[in-house]
Here is the input.
Amino acid sequence: MNSHAFSKLTISIVAVLLGFTTFAQAGPALICHPIEIGPAQSLPWVEWSHRGSTGYDVKNVTRDTLAILDANAPVLVRMETLRRATIYARQDSEVAKELITRLQARAANSDAAGHPDALAWFDAGYLAEAYKQWLGKGEPNPAVGVDGYSLVRKAISLRGSDPQMEFAAGLMTLAGPETAHRDHVRKAIAGATNDPLLAQNLASNFNHQTIAELLVAARAGVVNP
Here is the structure.
């Protein structure tokens, strides 16, 4: 994003802070809004509302997701890959369980080896919160009881300064806690000045507003579609 476009984004954020504070969401942000990843590789594209079969074999979700994550993918690519993985995993409860179990074990093993892996903890936490937003009532949900946000906070503490992780945490805390949410958003917006792809994501549209406006204006609960 060029400096002029980012300046316009900053102005829109200031306008929100000055008084435009009521916005409605189209659906759970971790699922319904795709993350811009440029030319990076992710899982095959799938619409968030898709429930039937596709040309992609869902049995390959865990293998293909881990291949992308283990290739040291940037955080934004991880977010989009885990978003798509969640949509696919909803079609097969065994796949959903396998994926989150593997990610949790991967993170725990890094601690046990004495080399805590921030990205592994991020992946486990982000997937858990995506599952909670998209696996409906009455559906098997292996993320029940998992505090994904706390895992992402652990990842941030291990990682240090990472505006893309702060962006993820901001999306995860749209319904609170408010103080933590504001801190995540502030750091994400500040970091976007040196991260064109993050700036592009903040300026992307979601239900007649930019993601930045949504994050800044957030007050209470997420409305599911």
